[in-house]
Amino acid sequence: MALSSLFRKKTVQDILAQVEKNNADGHNALGKHLKARDLAAFGIAAIIGAGIFSTIGKASYDGGPAVIFLFLFTAIACSFAAFAYAEFASMVPVSGSAYTYSYVAFGELMAWIIGWALIMEYAIGNITVAISWSDYFTSLMDNIINNLNHNYHFNLQLIADWAQMDYLTASNGFKDATALMQGGKSFENLSTGLQSAYRAWTTAPTIGSFHFVADIPALFIIVLITALVYRGMKESRNASNMMVIVKLCIILLVIAVGAFYIDVDNWTPFAPNGVGGVLKGVSAVFFAYIGFDAISTTAEECENPQRDLPKGMMWAIIICTVLYIIIALVLTGMVSYADLNVGDPLLFVFAKLDLKVMSAIIGVSAVIAMASVLLVFQMGQPRIWMSMSRDGLLPKRFSRVHPKYKTPSYATIVTGFVVAIPALFLNLTMVTDLCSIGTLFAFVLVCAGVLVLQNKKDIPRGKFKTPYVNSKYVVPFLLAAGLFYAFQFNSKATMGFVMNETQTNKAETIITSLNKEESQKVYAYLVRIDTDKNTVGKPDLENLLSKYQDDEVKYAAVVAGLPIDNSLKYESGFSLFKHKIPMWIFLLSLIGLTMWSFKENLSLIPLLGLVSCLYMMAELSVWNWIYFTIWLLIGLLIYFGYSRKNSKLSHL
Predict the structure, then answer these.
(1) 339-396, pLDDT tens digit by residue?
(2) Which residue ranges traverse the bilayer (predicted)?
(3) What is the DSSP letter of 466?
(4) Is the pTM of this model over 0.70?
(5) Angle of helix 67-91 relative to helix 98-105, nearest 10 degrees?
(6) CA distance 57 to 550
(7) CA-to-CA distance for 73 and 124, rounded, in angstroms?
(8) Are 328 and 73 in contact (CB under 8 A)?
């Protein structure tokens, strides 16, 4: 095969002709049941879930009340991408989302890459939501059991820690807890999460050296939702609409009640950790918006996709952004931002204020909300596989449509297994970041696809087109303004980034990396320099060292004197530079995009979407880039081993 075959493209005309043929003979045709309000409801169902009930807590802890600006920035970036999705969906109204769009714009190889990335996005996204759902469900059940035991003298057993936690969280938590206790911290002073992980690991059934720790509730909800998605689009739509109504009512109730408990003093300082603290929550906040793109996978099941898809996407983003900002202000007003580093922030805040009825209502609503997110994600992935199978890139059985339910039956069942098994063992942080980078990559390619096709005359246009503004008059100015701000008002951090200056590790990082002998040396040193005499009794190295962190200069001096190797105290050289590689990729890409925009008169909105999403990718850790690259390499092996020679375009 010639190299050019890697970039063979499908035409919009051929895609539309195939859809008409499917509809005419009923072969592989999906049922058409969706209108604009249903699409908006699917978008709200997907967006308002783990983000507002879980990850908003960590983002608020990092950024303080100023996290609302991150929600606003992310919403704007998603809106830019939504314009590109809407234009493509109007142009190519079929299942497949960014995969199909890339096939038209870039050719088969890029289409495969984005399809493979979308498989990861939806699978990992489902795993994330299932884990979050499990956290809320088990918390709710434990509260119910405790109340029954207390009020009615029942003797019910709580759900075992090893049956409600993933393997990696338990394993890593056990290691960190052991290191901290070795450093003098008592078990009672460990965080709740570390205590649970330690108990899960030590009480779990074992087979040899293997500890059987698995998130059983996550498995349960995935099986239940997969069965509903398999049953039909109409049933999924009805369930989604019902759950959206319930959770919107609950969120409005939370806002109404919480507003009476706001203490404006909690909004000071507004940005306690500066811009860096706000941006630290990029992954968590962006994850809160993942899902609106899943609407585009249902294009083939819309009554009027050219009209309704753009409306559904935009209304979903607007409604959810307003709710996110209000919720963030209410949460950070009710309690200090410093208390919000928890997995269930809404539940935590009302429980802390002793509003037990509201806590119960929130617990129930969170279970419903996250189930609706899982429904949308679990509905999107089989339709990606179905589209790839139709093109010959996956085996034919993936495009099999159930004769009665009119759903991609085989792909739906496989999706259930692909999501359910990893959900038993993977932890929340890892899967959240992997889901974010896969989604952002899809957004980048969709925005780039609109830019590539903008000047081509032979492409049929849909009813929706992104408003055109010439970017060459805007983007160079924005780049210059950004450089001016970086070197004029943030010069210390900018020069530290450019020069790769050595950074001092945080206290917890240092302490958890010590062996027993090193811990004893560090303790002896801290006792010697402790003028406050806080070392009486059992030593707690983390507290002893972290108390200096409020004073940056003093902390640096204390760390410099620690009697341990510098590699444990500092991060420098390539070990530091590697974490900056994603940002350097973004900066170099930004220069190239600026030159491209000036040369080709690119449309501003999709270009800003591309830049915004690429920036958010750069804020993710280098390890996420490495894991994502490994996933793509596995996909390329499958493409060159099976898909390339079985592609329907190879037989034309």
Answers:
(1) 887 767 877 788 788 887 787 787 787 787 778 777 777 877 787 788 888 888 888 8
(2) 39-61, 67-86, 210-230, 242-262, 274-292, 313-337, 357-377, 407-425, 431-453, 473-490, 581-597, 624-642
(3) P
(4) yes
(5) 60
(6) 22
(7) 24
(8) no
